[in-house]
Amino acid sequence: MQLTDFSVLTFDCYGTLIDWESGIITALQPLMTRAGKALTRKAVLATFGQHETQLERAHPAMRYSELLARVHDELASAWGVMPDAAESQRFGASVGDWPAFADTVAALRYLKQHYKLVILSNIDRDSFRATSPRLGVAFDAVYTAEDIGSYKPDPRNFVYLVEHLAAMGIDKSVTLHTAQSLFHDHAPANDVGLASAWIDRRHDASGWGATAAPRADVHYNFRFISLAEMMDAHRASM
Hints:
By secondary structure, the protein is α/β, with parallel strands linked by helices. The chain has two domains: 3-19 and 98-237, HAD superfamily/HAD-like (Rossmann fold, 3-Layer(aba) Sandwich), CATH 3.40.50; 21-97, DNA polymerase, domain 1 (Orthogonal Bundle), CATH 1.10.150. The protein has helices at residues 20-27, 29-35, 41-58, 64-78, 85-92, 104-112, 125-131, 145-148, 155-167, 182-191, 227-237; strands at 8-11, 116-121, 141-144, 175-179, 195-199, 222-224. It is globular and about 55 Å long.
């Protein structure tokens, strides 16, 4: 299997194209300061991930900006301080401030010359619109959790993706799902028969960051430590 076997790349956005962990840490600074505890980055991300995953399961139709605000409330309680509604709302609206990885724009502009590009994201439409200028390309389609009514890794998100691509005349055999999270993306991509490329952004860090640990049988077809490495691999295969 080679990258040139595919004509469509479907992307997770936050964690793969956008450095959501840095964005989360920055946006949580006011709460962390109020909590006044020696909280490590690893511990903050793990606690965030636990609450986010639980809320996504419990409230699959909640808009992501609202869900983030709810996560912020729960983090405040977990860290022993009173939730602050205005602070939580600011955190929920912070997605558009989260930075792109340094290689994202150049790699997407290169890949756009060779593939259709599609987003499948655990986000709401307004938040993605706020992020879109940071990505530097126009996507051929954008599918959000708000559109679908559930959050990855719910299999409905990938069924929706495959069905909507089919309506565009795109077969899953020419589609490569490209993502960082083994938990949110690669496991459900496996289940619907999509090939996948792991962008292992956390290759130099321990643990799973802001995501849950993946199931034991998850697999992928390609692994790259950055989108730039994927771009270089494609260029070398031409």
